[in-house]
Design a protein that fits this description.
alpha/beta, single chain, 15 helices, 15 strands
Length: 449
């Protein structure tokens, strides 16, 4: 039976109709890059992304069936839009009626979380990892860490966790969910890297593990154009979450969503009802084989995400950035991410055996050098003296990081990629923070005047 792809069906039919296009976009369907005929705007019959009904809603309903959710909504602006929407839903439905809204979050939250807190004037209650990490991307959070945070902030509107993180570490979402349910607090998960987790056996998707809401960057691991994301709402979440989701999303979103991106989400739903889930499972098995072969050559790996390979090359005498450059220039391999301690490789079912062979060949042939000194880079706790929003919109100045000790951070400083905050607005710069900033090549910072 043919999979339902209502958005693609409509757009394809329109492209073939011969209609004179007196509407956006300006290319009018004339081919410059090969896809213009399918790139339309919200004409009659095409639906509206932030309103109910039409071909878009029909496609979202198909995605909801596939993921087993109460509702699944499309974003054409990545998980960044979905994250802000989750925060806005939590604030609307759960925010404090008498004081400031607080959300408990692991410290390795993405920039989109920080931006959402600034725009909505939310105060994060940070959970710091008790386990030192070689990268700011890592923040191991346990159910007991969440319990302690909820005891400290019982009025929290939600708990927010990033899993998988950028290095491929999975968090105990099921255990954290049990704690959140015991306290009556919704659990939100940034699952940007884990859309494919739904199709493992058993599923490791946050919705199936007890999250109330989560976002998936479909484009990171599924055959979707860059910017395509899902916002999932669990069947066990309050009904109001689903009712207000489109309205909350529209607060932050462009009024010109991409039909090319929506069409790719629509087409992906058809693939997920076909052979793609088995191909995902096969790719996970092949990634595990690549991990074992890499380790057999003497390289250290990290993380437990099934479709990601994170290599820690220090024991072989390389920084992560050095190894990434060597892969690029000598072996024609481009990694997803590198820093001084790690290199992240992200396969998908669309990598072929040649790609894996090239990767394994590189690890067999790169010579060993004297080991580098192992260092951990856990973010130290900092003193907060202003809210994120107040600090961000204060009069500020840019100064050398070396001179910032004792000053108040205005605009957060992020590692790039993956945009994890090294210090956030309203926090005081310390010598330890400045050292970490310089390790990530951040030499100027924004401070309150």
């Amino acid at each position: 039976m043919k999979a339902e792809t209502p958005i693609n069906d409509f757009v394809q039919s329109y492209a073939e109709s011969g209609v004179s296009r007196f509407h956006m976009p300006g290319h009018k369907g004339v081919s410059l890059h090969g896809l213009e005929a399918l790139d339309i705007t919200e004409i009659k019959g095409a639906g509206y992304l932030y309103e109910a009904g039409g071909v878009i809603s029909a496609s979202e309903e198909a995605a909801s069936r596939i993921f087993g959710t109460a509702r699944t909504f499309y974003s054409t602006e990545g998980s960044s839009l979905s994250i802000k929407t989750m925060l806005s839903i939590a604030m609307r439905c759960r925010g404090s009626r008498s004081g400031r809204t607080r959300i408990i979050a692991a410290r390795n939250a993405h920039k989109a979380f920080i931006d959402g807190c600034i725009l909505l004037d939310i105060d994060p209650v940070w959970i710091y990892s008790k386990t030192p990490s070689a990268s700011v991307c890592g923040c191991r959070v346990t159910p007991e860490d969440v319990r302690s945070a909820l005891d400290t902030a019982p009025d929290a509107a939600a708990v927010y966790i990033t899993s998988p993180d950028y290095l491929g570490n999975l968090t105990d979402i099921k255990g954290i969910s049990r704690i959140c349910k015991a306290y009556g607090v919704p659990l939100l998960v940034d699952n940007a890297h884990g859309a494919y987790l739904k199709f493992l056996s058993p599923s490791l998707h946050p919705i199936d593990l007890g999250a109330d809401m989560c976002c998936d960057s479909a484009h990171k691991t599924l055959p979707v154009y860059t910017g395509g994301s899902y916002l999932h709402i669990s069947r066990s979440a309050p009904e109001e979450f689903s009712r207000c989701a489109k309205a909350e999303m529209s607060l932050f979103a462009s009024t010109s969503p991409s039909y090319l991106i929506m069409g790719s989400l629509d087409k992906c739903a058809g693939e997920l009802e076909g052979a793609l889930p088995e191909r995902i499972r096969k790719c996970c098995r092949r990634t595990e084989l690549a991990r074992k072969r890499t380790e057999a050559c003497g390289w250290e790996t990290a993380g437990d995400e099934p479709m990601k390979l994170t290599v820690c090359p220090g024991s072989r005498g390389y920084s992560g950035n050095e190894l990434a450059e060597l892969m690029r220039t000598s072996y024609r391999i481009e990694c997803e991410y590198s820093d001084f301690s790690s290199v992240v490789f992200m396969p998908s079912p669309y990598n072929d055996e040649r790609d894996f062979y090239r990767l394994e060949y590189a690890f067999r042939n790169i010579p060993k050098k004297p080991a580098l000194k192992a260092e951990t880079e856990a973010l130290p706790r900092t003193e907060t003296v202003m809210s994120l929003r107040e600090a961000c919109f204060s009069v500020s100045e840019e100064i050398p990081a070396d001179t910032a000790e004792g000053r108040i951070c205005a605009r957060p400083a992020f590692s790039c990629q993956p945009s994890i905050p090294l210090i956030t607005g309203g926090e005081i710069f310390t010598a330890a923070i400045i050292k970490i900033l310089k390790n990530y090549s951040i030499f100027t910072v924004s401070v309150v005047k």
